[in-house]
Amino acid sequence: MQNRIHLIGNAHLDPVWLWQWQEGYAEIKATFRSALDRLNEFPDFVFTRSCAAYYRWIEENAPEMFEEIKSRVAEGRWVIVGGWWIQPDCNLPSGESFARHSLYGQRYFHDRFGVTAKVGYNVDSFGHNGMLPQLLKKSGMDYYVFMRPDKNEKELERNLFWWESEDGSRVMAYRLSEAYLTNRGHSIEEKVLRHDAMAQQDGHAHMTFYGVGNHGGGPTISNLRTIEAMQTKYGEEHVVLSSPNRYFAELAAAGPELPVVKDEMQMHAIGCYSTHSESKENNRRAEHRLLNAEKFSAMANQLVGLPYPKEKLQLAWENVMFNQFHDIMGGCSIREAFQDAREAYGEALNIGAKTLNAALQRLSWSINTMKPEVKSLSKEKDWLSWEHADVGTPFVVFNPLSWDVELPVTANRRFASITDDEGNAVPIQTVRASRTNGEDKWDTLFMARIPAMGYRVYWCFMTKELPAPAIASPVEAVSCVLENAFLRVEIQKHTGYISRLVDKRTNAEMLSGPGAVPVIIDEHHSDTWGHGLHSYRDLIGYFSDAEVKVLEEGPLRGTIRVTSRYNGSVLRQDFILHHHAAELQVKVQLDWREKHKMLKLSFPVAVEQPEAVSEIPYGHIQRKANGREVPGQQWIDVSGLAVESDDGRRGLAILNNAKYGYDVLENEARMTVVRSPIFADHYGVRDELVEFMDQGMQEFAYSLVPHDGGWQDAGIVRKAYELNVPPTTVWETYHEGPLSQKLDGLAISSEQIVSTAFKQAEDGDGWILRCYETSGRSAETSIELPLLNRTWSSRFGKCEIKTFHIPFDETLPVREVNLVEFPCGD
Description:
By secondary structure, this protein is an alpha+beta fold. 24% of the residues lie in helices and 33% in strands. Strand 4, helix 5 and strand 5 form a beta-alpha-beta unit.
């Protein structure tokens, strides 16, 4: 029957929330055992379960039960859904993290059970980014089940609809009409009757989820006896024990007319975008570090035979994916859970550091850096560097990004001069080091040009002075002003705010009022999640009493430090301008001591009819400038019509390396820096023993990038990656080697195509290169991988993700695969 009710037996189980993962681990075993018992007791019962991580725990700790589950999966009564490692937060992980959830989750299910999930399943996540339809489709999932946002948070014409992402990918999506559980006091029959009325009105079947949940449990004997009575009363064909797989298969066959929704599924729990800053910073760092480790491990394997550390890197990714569980990534678990998260991120970061270092050192050791003057290694000249006579010390700079970069690099010594691999001297600047070792407290800053996904050797000379080209327009840092050829930045002396940000290329004032203003928001009315709220705008104060000090005066870099205070909290912002760039970088150190308060940095952009665009996983989205708290990733942009003229559009992009929450009200953008709710406070009884989040020190960076025209043509995506993924360096000495002193690893002809991942294929017979289109415009591009002797062309649709499999055998063609690395269409 078209309007039948599909009863979905499930056991919602948060592995971490008001308990630690060890308790979740035990509860998984008990819940799975209970589900197997129900399968034995009730011949028509069907159980639905997601999360590959849970199955891994059973496999390693209860192997007999695992074998029993395998037989039930083969029978079709234990239905695997989800296809991801865990039920993650669906806003804050990067696009590549979602790809890894699919890669490791779906391949685990395929390897262990011979199936892959057809239904995406995130019934408890707090929101769902607008690129998920493409990420799901390219992971073998044509359907999606979710619950939030609920109907009072987002109006939908119907709970069953086609969900479409910007690239045109579609999945059939179903929003639960009510909760995924039926704990004590919930009547299954009343729930079914409500859903039956909806089914009659909509003209198609509905799903009703049942089973004890949140701390596991699942369907009970009482649940199933109640359902048997309902089947007798209403008919077995009308009330069926089912699964999401069966539900969507029947709906797809029936082909009802469904609305199409091309939007994100938001907003729920807006405070989760900015809770527990440490975990969010660690997440961003770990995502990028593991990608860097994979890229250079692949290069080192191909060029110099270093074994590829596949198992180690997968373990690190599993830690990161587990910490992306929505109650960890969303920052709403107990304090003890975040100590566990710290340890898991630490292991992932350490694995990333070790594998990256092994690859870089193997590559750098294989570069031919020998000089004719050198007969043997000796440290007679200096105790730190291996420089022989005046021939210089080789310093290898690696660029993990998929385009050539020109960036400032710091060598942690004081040098008289530096040259590139061809002997051309480059401009340098002596800058303060982090050490204070007697007189040895200086480093050397220089500008490096490094090839895409490659490296370049620079030669550092301790005493030999080589004339470098003069800088045409050095940075000036005087009193409260920073200026280069592109920007002029003026800072108010006593407030520390930016009073003027002038784009000298167009003579445009980019701010309509003071910028980088640290505003304090009252959030006593908010629980940890931010339930029931749309925004945080109850302003109660500002950081003030600023001290402004020039730290560096150029020529390559100028820095002004602003230190301000609010109550017992101290905010230090180092405003940094480099001679070559039209962007203002800011390094922030915050000592936060507030409770039930939030810190935002405010930037009123001098445009009219503003449009706000945020980066989302493997894409971007335009949202209304209505002051609502929204999630973003590495950048947000506010663009509009120029205020003072009819010269068209301009805007200001705000990039960051650790933050995820924003709001934009008309032309004012506010980046959420920190908030300090109580741990795991769901409007509980607040007493003197509660503990508050994010007390103490944290550091992060952001950049302000003015631009003329739209953000797409201003290189915003690339600049955000450059802030988040700086070059990596290795000190070397003199040795023969098969590699040259400069390596171009990748060339992509279209600037709007970014490559994020280069790794060994999971099946071990080639390499994987993943790219995506960043501007929302289709493009034809050529891709060249010189180290693999490969060149091919591909057409990208707007916001399209493409994964290329490059066989070891050069006679075999490059082919496109999906995110699971299966042939497209499988």
